[in-house]
């Protein structure tokens, strides 16, 4: 058997992964959903042919999108996760006993169902009693919310297709409004390396900068995403991701992690000059 | 024209780059040398079919292998570069006026000739009067050296083929001997992500740890290398890459860089837990 999944990272770059077998395929109302087994990465999920997660490296993305804000914010009781139907962000969030409620807003219920059945590694905690699943458009869901969430995690797909609305100025403004006074929003921020991604990244970044007084970008090594150099955005009303980071408090929690640690927290905000220029040019 | 260069990162993962045309191809005494033009990465060099550098992202590798040690060491007058026939490391080194001599030891003179002709972006400074090119095996060259170099940069190929000797205990021991009392060795340290690379990386790391009292690993985002998560090793007799790093001194130099900066210097040494475990397990 010689079966390969190939993703075009640009028109001129492709990453191919040897597939053992396809375990799921469906066309939902919103997108094409596929799940494969591979030797190198274990099971992996694609949406419209774009890599969402692999069992081998999803811990990097999910730890970095959750533990960075959790180690900064003073007291997180109520969290909103937009997208993230795979359950990976929720899995990391439920490790915090102080969190009382997690609203997961996923537009595509079929993603949740598929992940529950075929990706138990990420979806395992979607049944936690603190998790409320809303089958809804995140863009619309957040419009009616005010001063309600201590943390909003925007675990979206790319800025085209179903996830497009989650990169708009209207959306960021509504997230700001939906946050409590000490709240923060974290989003997946695309990659700086390939111009086709970087242009969308810069545009979204400018909108976040315009919507929040504090906005910083951090990075992680995610080998199965285009270029392997992935960015996240941290935006808040007044909490600063470095000045308000308490390494001792994080360590005292004794949470076992495979990527994140207190040194990584600080190091992740140290961006290469070429990325800084991209972000500052837009400010 | 639909021409693609494909590199297998493992048996189960391939990265493919669209090629406009091949501009050079030769079989030297040591290896197959190829140079291509591409739309996405500009011109790029492969040895035995493995990506060595692209015009688009070589600055990341060369800045990180040179400026990290240069920002730590007190006074660097004499440098040994082993491998690095493309000239990228030399290009960054000649920016330091205090460096008086750079011995470049490249086993394959044909690599130097090809890069001088086809990759002027990296090879431009190989004619600097401080540079002495030795067409020799680095493993043998360093055997006779004692207390001579303030910095040794091991800019090798992978730990198989012509570069294999540059990952041996004998070689690291000889580098230690060849360094001055304040000297340090920096090497390209492979990637931690794919097991096939990580095993070689761990083995080499253990040998460096056994040969030097101080040994630390740092990382960079290099999109065209396997996984994009690339490691470097810093090993010294007593200089510490963080405690002896002087950010003010670096900034005062006013060297323009596209990746490296003082925050990156510190952040690059913040390794993910999964990488730390790999390195500590071997210590």
From TrEMBL, chains A, B:
Which Gene3D superfamilies has this protein been placed in? Spermidine synthase, tetramerisation domain, Vaccinia Virus protein VP39
Please list the reactions this protein catalyses: S-adenosyl 3-(methylsulfanyl)propylamine + putrescine = S-methyl-5'-thioadenosine + spermidine + H(+)
* Record: residues binding S-methyl-5'-thioadenosine: 31, 106, 137-138, 162
Q: Which keywords label this protein? A: Polyamine biosynthesis, Spermidine biosynthesis, Transferase
Q: Which residues form the signal peptide?
A: none
Q: What pathway or pathways are given for this protein in its record?
A: Amine and polyamine biosynthesis; spermidine biosynthesis; spermidine from putrescine: step 1/1
Active-site residues, as the UniProt record annotates them: 155
Give the binding site residues for spermidine. Answer: 62, 86, 155-158
Q: Which GO terms describe its molecular function?
A: spermidine synthase activity
PABS domain location is 2-237
Q: Note the subunit structure.
A: Homodimer or homotetramer.
Say which family it is in.
Answer: Belongs to the spermidine/spermine synthase family.
The task this protein performs is described as: Catalyzes the irreversible transfer of a propylamine group from the amino donor S-adenosylmethioninamine (decarboxy-AdoMet) to putrescine (1,4-diaminobutane) to yield spermidine.
What is the protein name given in its UniProt record? Polyamine aminopropyltransferase
Q: Which organism is it from?
A: Sporolactobacillus terrae
What are the top taxonomic ranks of the organism? Answer: Bacteria, Bacillati, Bacillota, Bacilli, Bacillales
Gene name, per UniProt, is: speE
């Amino acid at each position: 058997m010689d079966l390969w999944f190939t993703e075009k990272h640009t028109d001129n770059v492709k990453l191919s992964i040897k597939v053992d077998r396809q375990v799921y395929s469906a066309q939902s109302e919103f997108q094409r959903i596929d799940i494969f087994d591979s030797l190198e990465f274990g099971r992996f999920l694609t949406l419209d042919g774009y890599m969402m997660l692999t069992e081998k490296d999803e811990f990097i993305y999910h730890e970095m999108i959750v533990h960075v804000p959790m180690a900064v914010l003073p007291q997180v009781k109520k969290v909103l996760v937009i997208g993230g139907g795979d359950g990976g962000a929720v899995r990391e969030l439920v490790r915090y006993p102080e969190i009382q409620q997690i609203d997961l807003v996923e537009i595509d219920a079929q993603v949740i169902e598929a992940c529950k059945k075929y990706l138990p590694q990420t979806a395992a905690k979607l049944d936690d009693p603190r998790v409320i699943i809303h089958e809804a458009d995140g863009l619309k869901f957040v419009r009616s919310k005010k001063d309600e969430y201590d943390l909003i995690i925007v675990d979206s797909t790319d800025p085209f297709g179903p996830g497009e609305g989650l990169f708009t100025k209207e959306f960021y403004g509504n997230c700001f409004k939906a946050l409590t006074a000490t709240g923060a929003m974290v989003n997946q921020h695309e990659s700086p390396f390939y111009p086709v991604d970087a242009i969308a990244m810069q545009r979204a970044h400018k909108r976040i900068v315009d919507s929040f007084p504090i906005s910083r970008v951090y990075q992680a090594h995610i080998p199965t995403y285009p270029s392997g150099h992935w960015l996240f955005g941290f935006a808040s009303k007044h909490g600063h991701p470095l000045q308000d980071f308490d390494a001792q408090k994080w360590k005292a929690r004794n949470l076992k992690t495979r990527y994140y640690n207190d040194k990584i927290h600080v190091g992740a905000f140290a961006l290469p000059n070429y990325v800084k220029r991209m972000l500052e040019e837009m400010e």
